[in-house]
Amino acid sequence: MAIDLEKILRPIDNPLPKFPPKYMTVASGEQMVIRQVEREEIPLILPYVEPLMHVERDFYHIVSARVYAELLGYYTHRVQDEYVLIAQIDGELAAIVNGRTVNGDAGMSYHTLALRRGLRIGAHAFAAKMEYHMDILKQKEVLIVAESPIGFRRWMIEYKLEKRFDIAHELGGVPSWALTKELFENARASLVVGRRPVPEYLLAKAQEAILPPSDPPKPPADLLAATRSLYDSTATALIEQRKRLGGK
Amino acid sequence: MRDVYAVGIGITSFTRLEYPLVEIAAYPGMMAMRDCGLDHIDHLYVANMGAARLNNQTGLASAVVDNLSLTPASADGVENGPASGASAIKQAYMAVASGMHDIVMAIGAEKMREVNNLEATEFVATLSHPLAEYIYGVTLPALAGMFARLYMDKYGVTSRHLAMVAVKNHANAMHNFYAHLHQPITIEGILDSPEASTNNPYIADPLRFFDCCPVSDGAACLILTTADIAKKTGKPMIRVAGIGQATDTHAVHDRKDPTDLLAVREAARQSFAMAKIKPSDVDIAELHDAFTILEIAESEEVGFFPKGKGHIALEEGATQIGGKIPINTSGGLKAKGHPVGATGVGQAHEIVLQLRGDAKDRQVKNAKIGFTCNFGGFGNNVVCLTFIREN
Questions:
Q1: Which one-letter DSSP state was computed for residue B340?
Q2: CB contact under 8 A, B30 and A226
Q3: Contact with chain B for residue A224, Cβ under 8 A
Q4: pLDDT of residue A230
Q5: What is the pLDDT of residue A229?
Q6: Could you identify which of B179, B184, B338, B377 might form a hypothetical disulfide with B213, taking C-beta atoms 3.0 to 4.6 angstroms apart as the criterion?
Q7: Residue A69, C-beta contacts closer than 8 angstroms, at least 6 positions apart
Q8: In chain B, which residues have their Cβ closer than 8 Å to the Cβ of A120?
Q9: Residues of chain B under the 70 pLDDT cut
Q10: Rounded to an integer, what distance in angstroms lies between the CA atom of residue B206 and that of residue B215?
């Protein structure tokens, strides 16, 4: 009985062509490999996503929570036609991007999660995701939303996305934006980079193990905590109180 | 005139700070008082460029003095564009030197990330000539781009030299906890690799992304006082030995040769003359590298290198830590960040830290004389400071 129910609950994925891995040099001079991961590698990634749910900075908390759920959904067969790409630098997990196909013509971009900030790591991974939809899946457009101002700047502004506000995006039902084939071609020369094939030693290093990010996003250092420590909304009392306490 | 000493220093991270501007400004003030043990301040100068426009905050100095519970100390605001910070230190110096006050705090503070990068760039552009430049859409990156192109044509500076400045300053910032950018970069990654044009796109040709400073929030503070009080604090005696300030035409195109930064030249000359030193005596300098080309140009104008030879000195490693004259050990505006009104105080903070010998992994050995160049407008109002460690 339980097996029959699982058959009902589990969507049957359509066969999707694989993303051919690629690599690139980032601003630090390091080489980053972007490759597709399958279900069996998802449990290796989840422990690196979970801590970011507690980073209240640039919407890392909500993006990480949603990515975690989407990865679990993929792993447990609770999402239809999802794919996951990861970026690795020297084996370390640098970014995760994912999405799904809606139909033959349209894709639904889910998330871009940079586990190392700066150096356009997230932007390179997002470009690879769009490349997958346009060049590999041969789709006509990808529906996109952004949860953070950084995402808005990277996707909506840099790619000059079109509005598809009549379509509710799967992420929260918010109005969608769209990358069309034409917009992608306009952006290809300046935003979409990478070389193939990936040298054997680089790919082998990436596939050998998904290492934890050595410098993951952290909550902002609370350098101004002192002025807030007295529950004083105007923060005028700190020195005054110190005086009252006899300089202690 | 009395001698004046920098006894207390404080700084916030130069990054995006999600606090009200008044708190951002007050925090380094508290740090500076804790640093030197003084809790009485006669007067505050608070430098800021954009509070009224970006943060809907006017009367910042009055707000900060109350936030610090320093009332009834007197307080004034200082607005001199991106040179506001060094101007505030200059005012503080004059207040102590003249005998009007004994202990004066100079704070620089800015909260620019309140708005997006486009609005921040537009805001900074308001310092350009309103009729000859601003109305035609000039921005500071655009002015710097044109300046860089002229400099390249005239002196043989290349994109590689500009990238070398960025790589050096990013490397220095890796050792500065308070720096905005903790990202090591390489020539390969930003100039030579097939992906370089995406990693490092043009912003204002020939300037690329990594040739430009980030938009930062942040604040810094210096407390200046007399020799007697400074001695009692037990802190190293860092004397404000020289101050120079000069101006140039508002519109850049009115200059006879736009590659000559005459205000930098004159302000530095005054500062060195007052301190009774030569440029070659300086052990460490913080120059205003809002754009990489400016570090090269200013290093020549202040007299560290002959005109047109700054990029050669850069090639030879003279401006690195361990070189002849280390420049921008903090990471500079390029990587430490550029909260415009705070920058001049931030530069002085780095120099005092270095002269005290407290700069840890980026410490310049045996640094006794430090120099700052705070570049307002596009070189039309420049303040240079010289600091000398006496003990």
A1: G
A2: yes
A3: yes
A4: 35
A5: 39
A6: B338
A7: none
A8: 198-199
A9: none
A10: 20
